[in-house]
Amino acid sequence: MGVLFYCLARRHGHVYFLPDWLPLNQSAPALFGALGDQLPTFIHVYAFILLTVGVAAASIARLTFICLAWLALDSLLEVAQMDAPARWIAAHAPEWFSRIPFLENTAGYFLSGTFDPLDLASIAAGSLAAYLTVHISQGWLQDEQRA
């Protein structure tokens, strides 16, 4: 779902991991309207929580920890896109990062990123949505209501 979003809504050359020919939208990302800017942060945290829960065979306690851990990590990555932290991270990224795929873009990620408080809200909403998705799908909510 996330890759599809990037193909449909992100402008050519604005997504690190997609080849230049793949994005279908060559102009401003208007397909998703006002949600277009916050939808990726929602999708990222939601998907990573679901993947982690699936791999970890999470209990309710683990689910809470997983959701809080991804909320904290994604929020930290968002805050680190502010000017001062971004410049510090870019200046201190180790030279050997340049030889490792994805790590090679560390400085560019933070320097090109844009901090947005609404992204923090969408990260929180994605974390809560993932928590509720797993909680309800596992029947934990029904079990608690019966008790």
Can you walk me through this structure?
With 147 residues, the protein is mainly alpha-helical. The protein has one domain. The protein is 62% helix and 0% strand. It has helices spanning 2-9, 39-56, 60-79, 83-92, 106-112, 117-137, 140-146. The mean pLDDT is 79.
Order of helices and strands: HHHHHHH
Overall morphology: globular
What percentage of residues falls in helices of 4 or more residues? 55-70%
* Total DSSP E strands: 0
β-strand percent reads under 5%
Rounded to an integer in angstroms, the radius of gyration calculated over CA atoms is: 18 Å
Please mark out the parts with pLDDT under 50 across 5 or more consecutive residues, or reply none.
none
What is the rounded distance between the termini? 37 Å
Question: What structural class do you assign from the helix and strand content?
Answer: mainly alpha
Give the mean pLDDT: 79
Question: What are the SSEs and their pairings?
Answer:
Blueprint: H1 2-9, H2 39-56, H3 60-79, H4 83-92, H5 106-112, H6 117-137, H7 140-146
Helix pairs in contact: 2-3, 2-6, 3-6, 4-5
Give a nutshell description of this structure.
The chain is mostly helical. It is built from 7 helices and no strands.
Entry keywords:
147 residues; mainly alpha; 7 helices; 62% helix; globular
